[in-house]
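User: I'll paste a sequence; please echo it back and then give the predicted structure.

Assistant: Echoing your sequence first, then the prediction.
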Amino acid sequence: MENTEEEKLGAAVGLLNVGDRIKRLRINQKRTLQEVADNCGMSKGMISKIENNRTVPSMAALVKIAQSLGTNISNLLEQETQAKTIVTTFKEAEEKMVLTEKGYSIFPYASNFHEKQMQPFLFTAKKGQVLPHQLSHEGEEFVFVIEGEMKMQVGEVEYILKKGDSLYFSSLQKHGILPVSDEVVYLDIFV
């Protein structure tokens, strides 16, 4: 029997357990849901859904939550086990992709490598499913297109990136993507 998309999403959310780490960190800091929600510009209900692993936050939401809690995305995505070297096959990454509320799917590489200096992600975005949005945050990003074509806006400039193209930029600039081809697969590394 084949799993429904909802069941697959639920299983993937359970694997990440991002909400558990967010909740634990918030409680350790003796902060309320409302405090974190206000600090992130999100609703208390959305933070609650994220903490209870009922929804996978978008990258923009993860960045805001991490900043609000005084940490980084890598720390929110780290698993309990620690490793010094991590190998991930492309097939494994594809199978563990998680659909976000913004309409794209992500896979955080090296989630059991603690205190990373960078956070690599595999993204898949389908034309017509990604909600237009832009975000800015501390750090730098490197984007490399594996398959397909996408429009990436950084600041006031719009770039068309095709298979094999890359872009490196300061994440302080507002940025966002929209697929041009039916599907685009790309690597995004946050530093």
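Residues 5-16 form the longest helix (12 residues). The mean pLDDT is 85.
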